Amino acid sequence: MLTKTKTLIILGIVIMLLGVLSLYFFWNPSEHNIFPKCPFYSYTGIYCAGCGSQRAIHQIMNGHIITGIRHNYLLIIVFIVLSYKATLFILNKVYNKSYFDIFHKPIATKIILVIVLLFWILRNIRFFPFTELAP
User: What is the pTM of this model?
Assistant: First the structure.
C-alpha cells in the first residue's frame, strides 16, 4: 500500500510530466527558444543519438507520427521498451506475480547499446542513405 508521502511524490511527478508534455504539444521546439539546444551538437557539429528528439516528440504529440519518427528513429526503440516495461508492471500488479523481464539480462543492455552507438555513427555519415538518419 502506498504511503501518503509516496502518493504525493507520484502525483507531483505526474503533474510535472504533464506540464513538460504540454509544452511540447503547444510549442514547436524548432520555432521557439524556450527549449534547450543539444550541447554536443553545438560544440562539435556532430549529431548525437538524441538529436531531434524534442522535435520528434512535438510532431508525434500533434499526430504527425511518421514526421516525428523521421526526426529520431531511436524513438521506436524507446516506445517498445517503455511499452514493454509498462505492460510488465501492470501485469505484475494485477496478477500479483513477478513476470520475467528480458531487459534485466546483460545481453539486452548490450544490444541496445550497440544499436544506439551504430545509430549515432551512421546518422553522421554525410551521404545517402545515411543522411536519412539525420534529424
Answer: 0.76
